[in-house]
Amino acid sequence: MSNFKLKKGVNLSLEGAVSGTSTTQVSAKRYAVVPDDFTGIIPRLEVKEGDKVLAGDALYHDKNHPQIKISSPVSGTIEAIERGERRKILSIVILPDSENQFKVFNAKDAKELMLESGLWAAMRQRPYDIVPDPDVAPRDIFVTAFDSAPLAAPMSLQVAGKEEYLQKGIDALGKMTEGKVYVGCAPEAELSLKGCEVNTFAGPHPAGNAGVQLANVKPVNKGETVWTLDAVTVARLGELIATKKLPVETIVAVVGENVTTPKLVKCTMGADIASLTAGNIADVAGSRIISGNVLTGVKVAANGYLQFPYRQITVIPEVKNDAEFMGWASLSPKKFSLYRSFTCRLFGTRKPFSFDSKLNGGERAIIMSGEYDRMLPMDIYAEYLIKAIIAFDIDKMEQLGIYEVAPEDFALAEFADTSKLPLQRIVREGLDKLRKEMN
Predict the structure, then answer these.
(1) Contacts of 165 (CB under 8 A, 6+ apart)
(2) 128 strand-pairing partners
(3) CA-only gyration radius of the chain, Å
(4) Quick check: 96 and 123 in contact, CB under 8 A?
């Protein structure tokens, strides 16, 4: 075991955190799978509207790797296949039945079970941050066992009572690589796992990111492949091996300033937002609903759906009028800043602050100030990498560590960026373009 102390990054303290660990069971009226959640997969439908499905039945497969399937989280009827421009599949909506029957898988091999059940798509591959290619064996596998994102519920709640399944999952992953399975956990965690190397990571967000842990333990080099996933997926893998049924239950933190009563909700993956937040949003019209956390989550409508990785819904105020008295010159101690330009620094930044959707400035040229580096505990020159991606200079991108990063690693830098650049989008587009070019 190694202990890593990360100094870069910051913990954002937002209003609307959950207090306690009690959960409320919720049954949703509808469920959906959103193909955009699974980067790298080109969907080919296996169902049509009106079809009956079981929980675990394939909804679609990947065009390039047909063995990779995405499955239904519930049994019921395919109510709608929603499409966008050029008939792109936006979502597959399932109307659940009252029985919720599960498909039983016959595969004995853990890898085949993951592919057939759709659990494979819960992993990510470095480089490119995509669903892993099943034909390429990973050098190592990295598992993160804690979530350091703003307002995130402890990941330990998701795996509580599933220690046996967690070990089964670790054992199965160990057979999929000739290297090691690394597990990154918080210093206070009590994990007793065999067949893996457990490392602790102390420090602010993004210490809980699998990519950050990977970069500090054993970085990815050109030509290498590494898989990343979280402990929740590992426990699901163990349960899948034991029961031959796809585990679909999840615990969701419904949090944020505009949530009347922040709470933990136990539900099924892909549930509709309206069922999970019913009567619990103070001002729906004046709120931004995010499936995920405020840094990496996806903005969804009030009638949208819980999207991968299915652990959090955050509701913050939506700004309609961007005008603000005094603006950047404000002396209010309630105004948050990462720098010593606001009076909040005199009183500390640990108390909960009110954050809304305001951009606080306009997009401008990159200011080479070291801001990105202070938010990214990885051994790369983040600002130079972003410039290389924008210019699509492949040689520079490779030299500066493009194969190590994922968009989520730049989420905090995007928050702190005085240039207001969409760093996550830039990294995502750069990775996609590079993958197309290299293949």
Answers:
(1) 159, 235, 236, 237, 238, 239, 242
(2) none
(3) 21
(4) no
Encoded tokens for 22:
């009690």
DSSP string, 359-409: --S-------SSHHHHH--SSS-HHHHHHHHHHT-HHHHHHTTGGG--GGG
Taking the C-alpha atoms of residue 371 and residue 349, their distance in angstroms, rounded to an integer, is 18
pLDDT block averages, 10 residues each, the chain of length 439: 93 93 95 97 97 98 97 98 96 96 95 97 97 97 97 92 96 97 93 94 97 96 96 98 97 97 97 96 93 97 96 92 67 73 64 84 82 94 96 96 96 93 96 95
Query: How far, in Å, CA of 29 to CA of 250, rounded?
Result: 16
Tokens of residue 291, six digits: 């499936």
pLDDT for position 331: 67
Q: Coil, strand, or helix at residue 16?
A: coil
Beta bridge partners of 80: 93
Q: Vertex 91, ends 37 and 74: CA angle to 5°?
A: 90
Q: Are 32 and 91 spatial neighbours (Cβ–Cβ below 8 Å)?
A: yes
Phi then psi dihedrals of residue 273, to 5 deg: -60, -40
Is residue 410 within 8 A of residue 429, CB to CB? The reply is no
> How far is it, in rounded angstroms, from Cα 372 to Cα 423?
10
Q: How far apart are CA 352 and CA 345, in angstroms?
A: 13
Phi-psi label, residue 345: left if phi above 0, alpha if psi -120 to 50, beta otherwise: alpha
Instruction: Report the pLDDT value the prediction gives residue 439, as an integer from 0 to 100.
Output: 85
* Angle in degrees, CA 289, 290, 291, rounded to 5: 125
Contact, 248 vs 28, CB < 8 A? no
Report which residue type is found at 199.
N
Return the structure tokens found at 246.
């796809």
- Listing DSSP states for 238-299 in one string gives HHHHHHSS---EEEEEEESTTBSS-EEEEEETTBBHHHHHTT-BS-STTEEEEES-TTT-EE
- For residue 121, what is the DSSP state? G
Q: Which three-class secondary structure state does DSSP give residue 48? A: coil
The tokens describing 306, both together, are 């819980």
pLDDT given for residue 304 in this prediction: 96
